[in-house]
């Protein structure tokens, strides 16, 4: 009888130990150790990770209500910096995008992948949550399809579009997020088809139209009304 009682106490102690394995606090009431949180009235995890006296440390995994075992995002925290490494995932656990954040702001290079693939679809540069630097987009085969430059969240400078064979198809110039400057359109062999200038998002001046490399037509913009 006594042995059964001792065995019962042993089993209870195991259960208590498991219950205290997660969601603990330190002496100051700060979250400390491994933590898990589930959605209300559900066994589906909402997040899991480790706190060090109230501060996130190491990897945290975040889930949606129907995520199952695969997280929709992970964040890796460091004790020595405010920078957090972030990854977003598909419902099957494939990486969609990854990069770094400080608080809610993206910083540095972010990488996006083609659906269901490890091939890069796009890279972007961020500064304090704004696009700043070169944005590059790629075909599935790795060939560059487009590159655009940004300055504090706005297009600035050249935007170039390429064919899958690497031939330039379009070339635009931006200033303060508006088309402003030379623009060119090319055929699949790289010959100019159309060229002209934009001024604050509108065609301006003489636009030239070519056929087989020869000038076919010229048009004046803005179009002048008859009698004006």
Sheet with the most strands? 19 strands, antiparallel
Strand content: over 45%
Averaged pLDDT, please?
91
The DSSP helix count reads 1
> For the CA atoms, what is the radius of gyration?
29 Å
Q: Based on CA inertia axes, which overall geometry fits?
A: elongated
Overall number of strands: 19
Helix content: under 10%
How is this structure best described in words?
With 228 residues, the protein is mainly β. The chain has one helix and 19 strands. It has one helix at 2-19, and strands at residues 24-25, 31-38, 45-52, 55-62, 73-77, 83-89, 95-102, 105-113, 120-127, 130-131, 133-138, 144-151, 154-162, 168-175, 178-179, 181-186, 192-199, 202-211, 214-221. The protein has a 19-stranded antiparallel β-sheet that branches. Strand 9 (120-127) and strand 10 form a beta hairpin. The N and C termini lie far apart (111 Å). Residues 5-19 have low confidence and may be disordered.
Outline:
The chain has one helix spanning 2-19, and strands at 24-25, 31-38, 45-52, 55-62, 73-77, 83-89, 95-102, 105-113, 120-127, 130-131, 133-138, 144-151, 154-162, 168-175, 178-179, 181-186, 192-199, 202-211, 214-221.
How are the elements arranged and paired?
Blueprint: H1 2-19, E1 24-25, E2 31-38, E3 45-52, E4 55-62, E5 73-77, E6 83-89, E7 95-102, E8 105-113, E9 120-127, E10 130-131, E11 133-138, E12 144-151, E13 154-162, E14 168-175, E15 178-179, E16 181-186, E17 192-199, E18 202-211, E19 214-221
Antiparallel strand pairs: 1-2, 2-3, 3-4, 4-5, 5-6, 6-7, 7-8, 8-9, 9-10, 9-11, 11-12, 12-13, 13-14, 14-15, 14-16, 16-17, 17-18, 18-19
């Amino acid at each position: 009888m006594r042995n059964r009682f001792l065995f019962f106490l042993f089993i209870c102690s195991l259960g208590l130990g498991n219950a205290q394995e997660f969601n603990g606090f330190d002496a100051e009431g700060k979250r400390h150790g491994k933590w898990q949180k589930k959605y209300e009235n559900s066994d589906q995890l909402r997040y899991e990770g480790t706190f060090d006296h109230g501060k996130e440390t190491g990897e945290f995994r975040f889930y949606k209500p129907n995520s199952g075992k695969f997280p929709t995002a992970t964040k890796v925290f460091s004790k020595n910096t405010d920078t957090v490494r972030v990854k977003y995932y598909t419902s099957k656990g494939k990486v969609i995008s990854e990069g770094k954040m400080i608080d809610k702001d993206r910083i540095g290079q972010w990488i996006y992948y083609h659906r269901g693939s490890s091939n890069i679809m796009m890279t972007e540069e961020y500064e304090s949550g704004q696009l700043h630097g070169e944005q590059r987009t790629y075909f599935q085969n790795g060939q560059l399809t487009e590159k655009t430059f940004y300055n504090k969240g706005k297009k600035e400078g050249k935007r170039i579009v390429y064919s899958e064979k690497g031939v330039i198809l379009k070339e635009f110039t931006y200033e303060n997020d508006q088309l402003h400057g030379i623009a060119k359109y090319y055929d699949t062999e790289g010959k100019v088809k159309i060229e002209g200038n934009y001024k604050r998002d509108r065609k301006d001046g003489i636009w030239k139209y070519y056929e087989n490399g020869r000038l076919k037509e010229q048009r004046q913009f803005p179009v002048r009304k008859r009698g004006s």
